[in-house]
């Protein structure tokens, strides 16, 4: 199970807080990613490491439908986003680009930024602070899509 640090955020975190609209004019995700969570934690892009996790509360990724929001998280190497619930369009965009998004009702209340966790996508289990949490287990077909880099990559391989 991949182990990584947690970066915890609040309920109703919207896509503008993930990546501000003024940065959507930049040419690509590589240039955008240095502005991820800029209004909440300007040093986030410097602190997050590949394999780390973003944890949120209810309605994570609400707001606009921009696919750059999950895109910058993936570009920074975030292993997965775990939240109590997701805005529907953020969830779909994340799966489309291959960023795992997992619903876990209890975990966000028990952890803080800097805690370490492990995630087993195939089992739907998170381990953190000596406790095991049962999370939504993605169906096998969705796990296959993620393993191929997302829906877009999966569809491109079928052509």
UniProtKB/TrEMBL annotation:
Residues 50-99 form the Aconitase A/isopropylmalate dehydratase small subunit swivel domain. Pfam families: Aconitase_C. InterPro entries: Aconitase/3IPM_dehydase_swvl (IPR015928), AconitaseA/IPMdHydase_ssu_swvl (IPR000573), IPMI_Swivel (IPR033940), LeuD (IPR050075), LeuD_type2/HacB/DmdB (IPR011827). Signal peptide: none annotated. GO terms for molecular function: 3-isopropylmalate dehydratase activity. Its EC number is 4.2.1.33. The keyword Transferase does not apply. GO terms for biological process: L-leucine biosynthetic process. It comes from the Bacteria. Pathway: Amino-acid biosynthesis; L-leucine biosynthesis; L-leucine from 3-methyl-2-oxobutanoate: step 2/4. Keywords: Amino-acid biosynthesis, Branched-chain amino acid biosynthesis, Leucine biosynthesis, Lyase. It catalyses: (2R,3S)-3-isopropylmalate = (2S)-2-isopropylmalate. Heterodimer of LeuC and LeuD. PANTHER family: 3-ISOPROPYLMALATE DEHYDRATASE SMALL SUBUNIT 1 (PTHR43345:SF2), 3-ISOPROPYLMALATE DEHYDRATASE SMALL SUBUNIT 2-RELATED-RELATED (PTHR43345). Belongs to the LeuD family. LeuD type 2 subfamily. Catalyzes the isomerization between 2-isopropylmalate and 3-isopropylmalate, via the formation of 2-isopropylmaleate. NCBIfam families: LEUD_arch. This is 3-isopropylmalate dehydratase small subunit. It comes from Lacrimispora xylanisolvens. The lineage of its organism: Bacteria, Bacillati, Bacillota, Clostridia, Lachnospirales. The gene is leuD.
């Amino acid at each position: 199970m991949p182990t990584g640090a947690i970066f915890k955020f609040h309920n109703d975190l919207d896509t503008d807080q993930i990546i501000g609209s003024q940065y959507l004019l930049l040419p690509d995700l590589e240039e955008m990613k240095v502005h991820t969570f800029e209004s909440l934690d300007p040093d986030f892009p410097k602190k997050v490491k590949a394999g780390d996790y973003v944890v949120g509360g209810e309605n994570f990724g609400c707001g606009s439908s921009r696919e750059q929001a999950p895109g910058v998280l993936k570009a920074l190497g975030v292993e997965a986003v775990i939240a109590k619930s997701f805005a529907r369009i953020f969830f779909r965009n994340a799966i489309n680009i291959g960023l795992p998004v997992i619903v876990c009702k209890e975990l966000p209340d028990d952890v803080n930024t800097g805690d370490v966790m492990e995630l087993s996508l195939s089992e739907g289990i998170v381990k953190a602070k000596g406790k095991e949490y049962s999370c939504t287990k993605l169906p096998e077909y969705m796990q296959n899509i993620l393993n191929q880099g997302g829906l877009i990559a999966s569809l491109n391989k079928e052509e």
